[in-house]
């Protein structure tokens, strides 16, 4: 794909890797490359494994863009929300192999996936926007409401509580935690099992199960286009 996002396919599993600097910042270019990778996976009819660099899935949106102006920030947020909305309704299963920290938009990537595997260690996962002076956008609030365990929704969204990988399973950010060396083998084994699904049935059931969330996300993305952070 590019230096920012790589794409590798093997046995009907497409591994998409984020590699944008130390914190894997999510910029316009990264989102564009992720969409291109998803296009390729869709053409290849492949189960997706999305991962990052060792120790870091993503630290969130590119702060240079977010601090540039309100219009610049909202444009990036809207684009990022459209990406996570696409992941939620992707025709094939999407697995995130969370290679370390997943903060802000990094955590939202987890919430947009069908299955999430994380790694053991002193990593932080969660939505820190309120702690750094940002109001969470409407689409982010609704994605969190739809995917987090109810008892963690307030703690994560309103109070910016960060959690460990093990706590992230309880909260709803992750489904499983493994040792570092087991991350990609585990994600790939799960992905291989998912290649045996009937993809038409998977897709139609996914859309049915998430119909209400997808509708509210569409409304929230549009609302965010006309509001400020």
What's the story with the biggest beta sheet?
6 strands, mixed
Q: Unreliable segments (pLDDT under 50, ≥5 consecutive)?
A: none
Give the number of DSSP strands. 9
Sheet with most strands: strand arrangement: 1-2-3-5-7-9
Content of β-strand:
15-25%
What do the pLDDT scores average to?
96
Going by helix content, strand content and strand pairing, the class is alpha/beta
Shape: globular
Helix content: 40-55%
Taking all Cα atoms into account, the compactness measure Rg is: 16 Å
- Summed up, the helix count is 10
Encode the helix/strand succession as letters.
EEHEEHHEEHEEHHHEHHH
Query: Between the first and last Cα atoms, what is the distance in angstroms?
Result: 32 Å
